[in-house]
UniProtKB/TrEMBL annotation:
The lineage of its organism: Bacteria, Bacillati, Actinomycetota, Actinomycetes, Bifidobacteriales. Its EC number is 3.6.5.4. Residues 34-61, 76-110 are annotated as: Disordered. This is Signal recognition particle receptor FtsY. The gene is ftsY. It comes from Bifidobacterium samirii. It is found in: Cell membrane; Cytoplasm.
Length: 413
């Protein structure tokens, strides 16, 4: 026989042998898998349709109810978790059953951390639209228009939006081309400039050499969050170790003073109010300022009734509240509370309030429910006063100093 034929036969035998070995291994594996899945079925509740994933959680749950100890012994990670969660409610039930205590307001550091994250989330819808545009390789004419529209929709204001986009386009030309990453970095810088990165946003009560008592008057249209903000602000000062007095100069309805009293009671802050409905709000402001002076409080916060900016007599009333208070104490701060969800309508309100009583700062409330954070820019430009605080929720500690960097990063997130 020719050697080549012998080699050929050996090669064929070798290939057949290898094929047989591979087939044998595969068959063994699939048999093992089939027997494993059929073995798991009898452990189920007997339902033929129950698959492995439906069966597993039932075991630890049953075990936890009947015998926690045995569940721990038989434990997988899931069963241990089930036991822990079965035990937890008993231990957490105890504090709930005990008597109510005076609240301790959240510390400034932890509050600011928490609210920064919340602020970033609240501004996001605006950011996402910009992100989509800026994620492109090269910006076209239509993209630039979209950037401007997005700024407009976020209430940045027509003039500011146009100027911002013009400046960015000029920049993009200077730097060569419209690289979205560069545009994003430039946009961040411009937005920070517009928002005012170095603006002094401290409350006047927080400045060195502030008057004592330092007087703050809350004003704004109906339902913007004046009383809530007065309450939250009182908590902020209390958390900082300062003594506070509240004045309920919203005498329009008794419920308003009750509302303020509820805030005061939680942090042990006295509230000066009138006994009768419809009393002169200026007389309550007078009495509150006299009492705060006498008590030597650090801060007096006066809440006023909501009023529409087109009601001339009600706007005059604000001027009177201020003048009467000033017979006892200088007024350091008038905070206009603007509801961020009202968008550009807030601008008209702001201008009229500024004329009637003078405004030293803006509180932008309900920013948690608004994609219109851009009003921060337009309101500051129109009034020339800074946004000092933002309201980011209905929780008692959901009030934070306005932080420009956090705000802009939230927009561009
Ligand atoms: N989500 C959210 N709700 C807020 C915020 N601030 C206030 N609110 C809610 O807005 C509603 C009105 O708040 P108030 O503080 O009573 O408003 P007001 O300006 O005192 O109202 P009037 O005295 O009637 O003019 C309440 O339900 C508050 O809980 C905020 O920052 N975020
Ligand atoms: Mg109120």
């Amino acid at each position: 026989m020719e050697p080549i034929v012998i080699i050929g036969i050996v090669a064929v035998i070798a290939v057949v042998a290898v094929a047989l070995i591979v087939w044998g291994v595969m068959k063994h594996r699939s048999d093992a898998a089939a027997s494993a899945s059929s073995e798991s079925l009898p452990q189920s509740d007997g339902s033929p349709s129950a698959g492995a994933s439906a069966v597993k959680p039932a075991e630890p749950a049953d075990a936890a109810v009947s015998s926690p100890a045995s569940a721990v012994v038989a434990s997988s990670d899931e069963s241990t978790a089930a036991v822990e969660s079965a035990v937890e409610p008993t231990s957490t039930a105890e504090p709930a059953a005990s008597a109510p205590r005076k609240e301790t307001p959240e510390s400034a550091t932890s509050r600011i951390q928490r609210l920064k994250a919340k602020l970033a989330r609240s501004a996001n819808p605006f950011g996402r639209a910009l992100f989509d545009i800026l994620a492109k390789d090269k910006l076209t004419e239509a993209d630039w228009e979209d950037v401007e529209d997005t700024l407009l929709l976020a209430d940045v204001g027509a003039e500011a939006s146009e100027r911002l986009v013009d400046e960015l386009r000029r920049d993009a030309r200077v730097t060569g081309e419209s690289d979205p990453e560069q545009v994003r970095a430039a946009l961040r810088e411009r937005l920070l400039d517009l928002v005012g990165r170095d603006t002094d946003r401290r409350l006047n009560a927080d400045r060195d050499g502030a008057n004592r008592p330092s007087v703050i008057i809350m004003v704004g249209v109906n339902g913007t969050g004046k009383t809530t903000t007065a309450g939250k602000l009182a908590r902020l000062f209390v958390a900082d170790g300062r003594s506070v007095m509240l004045g309920a100069a919203d005498t329009f309805r008794a419920a308003a003073a009750d509302q303020l009293e509820t805030w005061g009671a939680k942090v042990d802050v006295p509230v000066v109010r009138s006994d009768k409905d419809g009393a002169d709000p200026a007389s309550v402001a007078f009495e509150a300022s006299a009492k705060a002076k006498e008590a030597g409080s650090d801060v007096l916060i006066i809440d006023t009734a909501g009023r529409l900016q087109n009601k001339a007599n009600l706007m005059d009333e604000l001027g009177k509240i201020r003048r009467v208070t000033e017979k006892n104490l200088p007024v350091d701060e008038v905070l206009l509370v603007l509801d961020a969800t009202t968008g550009q309508n807030g601008m008209t309100q702001a201008k009229v309030f500024a004329e009637a009583i003078g405004i030293t700062g803006v509180v932008l409330s309900k920013l948690d429910g608004s994609a219109k954070g851009g009003i921060v820019i337009s309101v500051q430009q129109a009034l020339g006063v800074p946004v000092k605080l933002v309201g980011l929720g209905e929780g008692p500690d959901d009030l934070a100093p306005f932080d420009p960097e956090g705000f802009v990063d939230g927009i561009l997130a």
